[in-house]
Design brief:
heterodimer, A: alpha/beta, four-stranded antiparallel sheet, 10 strands, B: mainly alpha
């Protein structure tokens, strides 16, 4: 199977600090990849590079569906194929839930009002927020807002969905409802790249777990390999540190 | 002569009123034209300032600083009395509208810039991640939110522009103040001046109250 996302020698410096130090990663269609690692390890920078929210080194290359990710005319069309769910939701506060979901299909995909509305309704039902359709984001709980954000990303029917620590700013009792939606997506065959601290989710849902530290991929493999028999000492140390309490 | 006869002389009021009304019309027209042109100019300048390439951004920054520094009266006199020496002869109305627009545009640009920069980065990132182009991002996501932030200071700026229209009387524009001073000279009575002052207050008081209400409203509301 050919890769839907192909990352070659990805490098990124913030001044003297090396955020990404030569990442190579291929992701095939339908795969669910969880990226774990200590904070500052570059995992968010990595997935933010895939839709060029984060500019990267000239010598690096990222292909999404064989189209190079770089500044220029094609960037918006690449971005339209790459959905993203943010830690801080980033819903549009001046629009209702329904309008948040419909905006991009109408503006970018040129869907009709009716098509976009039908699609939005169907998505809102699938993430369980249809009762909030005409509310504004600030009237919703964090968990509901994040489910709206997932529906908004799905409305573009992207080829890949990126999740940047989607549960990190949620109250603990709301983490489950968001992870449940993500699990269902994973099982429905959506290609997902998930930066997360939820080890239970990674173990249960990921096809592959990637452990990063200091801007490098230290180790990658099936969840059972990484969690139960990590080969690298840094992976062991990280897992011990987070699982030991 | 009694105080009433001096400052609120009925017969003077009646005879000068048509003149004052025509002055009021000119004042309002000048105010509206300058405010609208200043808004368009200011939005454009703000976008260049934030998103333009380095030299363009620097150029508009200089424009903003210069026109926020220059007294409007000085600018107006330069436009009206100095530009004819380089062959640019503007009518009093055009001179006043140009000067007011240039200054209002500079202030408006700073107001828009502050409004746009107050929008969290996540709003830009979410728009970009959805594949929205620059124009849709600005028109659908950023500006509607920025507008809410900038409405109170923009209204304040409108008040200032309308007040500053009175300066146009020095370049012989028949605005409210000019008509009032002429009527006063003609009648040898200050009643027209008092009426003109009351007219300015009558136009601007509601706006002043409105600014107060808007500020309160947008402070209590969060983003929406």
């Amino acid at each position: 199977m050919s890769a839907i996302v192909s990352i070659r020698n990805l490098r990124k410096n913030f001044g003297n600090f090396t955020a990404l130090d030569g990442i190579n990663l291929d992701i095939v269609e339908g795969e669910v990849v969880c990226i774990i690692g200590p904070s500052g390890s570059g995992k968010s920078t990595l997935i933010r590079s895939i839709n060029l929210l984060e500019p990267f080194d000239e010598s690096s290359e990222i292909l999404v569906d064989d189209i190079p990710v770089r500044r220029g005319k094609k960037l918006a069309s690449v971005r339209a194929e790459v959905g993203m769910v943010f830690q801080s939701f980033n819903l549009f506060p001046h629009m209702t839930v329904r309008e948040n979901i419909k905006l991009a299909p109408i503006r970018v995909r040129k869907s009709s009002e009716q098509e976009a509305d039908d699609k939005a309704m169907q998505l809102m039902r699938s993430v369980g927020i249809e009762a909030q359709a005409d509310k504004y984001p600030d009237q919703l709980s964090g968990g509901q807002q994040q489910r709206v954000a997932i529906a908004r990303a799905l409305a573009m029917e992207p080829k890949i969905l990126l999740f940047d620590e989607p549960t990190s700013s949620l109250d603990p009792e709301m983490v489950g409802e968001v992870l449940d939606v993500m699990k269902r997506l994973a099982h429905s065959g959506v290609t997902m790249i998930v930066v997360t601290h939820e080890m239970g989710f990674a173990r249960q849902v990921a096809d592959r777990v990637v452990f990063m530290d200091e801007g490098k991929i230290i180790e990658a493999g099936r969840p059972s390999d990484i969690f139960d028999a990590p080969k690298e000492s840094r992976t062991q140390d990280f897992l011990n540190a987070i699982l030991d309490h | 002569m009694s105080l009433t006869e001096t400052f609120f002389n009925w017969s003077v009021l009646v005879s000068s009123f048509p003149l004052l009304l025509s002055g009021l019309r000119v004042t309002l027209l000048l105010g509206v034209v300058s405010i609208l042109a200043g808004l368009v100019l200011g939005l454009f300048v703000a976008l260049v300032r934030i998103y333009g390439v380095r030299p363009a951004s620097l150029a508009v920054k200089i424009y903003i600083d210069v026109f926020r520094s220059i007294p409007i009266l000085v600018l107006l006199i330069v436009v009206y009395y100095a530009l004819p020496f380089v062959g640019l002869r503007l009518t009093p109305f055009m001179s006043a509208a140009t000067a007011l627009t240039l200054v209002s545009g500079a202030y408006t640009a700073e107001i828009f810039r502050a409004g746009i920069e107050a929008i969290p980065r996540g709003q830009f990132e979410a728009s970009q991640a959805l594949g929205l182009g620059y124009r849709h991002m600005m028109a659908d996501v950023i500006l509607p939110q920025a507008i809410r932030i900038v409405i109170p200071p923009l209204t304040n700026n409108c008040i200032n522009v309308i007040k500053d229209t009175a300066l146009a009387s020095v370049v012989a524009m028949p605005d409210l103040l000019k008509q009032a001073t002429q009527a006063q000279a003609l009648e040898a009575n200050p009643t027209p001046l008092i009426i003109a002052a009351l007219m300015y207050i009558a136009i601007l008081w509601p706006l002043v109250v409105l600014v107060g209400r808007l500020e309160k409203k947008y402070r209590s509301e969060t983003a929406r």
